[in-house]
Amino acid sequence: MLVPAAPASAQADEPLLGQLMLVGYNFCPRGWAQASGQLLPISQNSALFSLLGTTYGGNGTSNFQLPDLRGRAAIGIGQGPGLADRVLGELGGVETVTLSLAQLPSHTHVGGVRAFPSVATTTDPAGNYLAQAAGGNLAYAASTTAPTNFMNPETVSVSGAGGSQAHSNLSPYLTLKWCIALQGIFPSRN
């Protein structure tokens, strides 16, 4: 059943204490703070501390920490079908990833190798092409033109290569400012 929204005049003028909101400008409104992990004194924010506790940090004696959403995406708590269980305040993920060979699937490539159609004249592969064996151990022939004959296709195994450098692990994003209500209506549980 859908419940129609209350008219603007009937909606609360105050946010819920600890409520998070995104804004498209570079400051948080009065009564709100940027959700950037700063420490707040419990003595001046006891109601908010009763909601957040030390979920996001702090010593729990004299201070507590606000959530730090700088450079982070918020996800819901709990466990969806086939997903890991996520607890309130849990941090995860990385901005860049360096893959190891163990993380890459094994695979093969089919390649074609060109061979020179005459009898081999040298054992040195440098600057030469594969050629027909001449009864000895020779395997290459010198030529001023690239060969046009292809040998039968074979599977070529590929070994690990690469620069071992990290690559971006970020989804497309739009940066906005996260704010948390430092003042407001204390939320009821039902």
UniProtKB/TrEMBL annotation:
Occurrences of domain Phage tail collar (ranges): 18-73
Superkingdom of source: Bacteria
Protein name per UniProt: Phage tail collar domain-containing protein
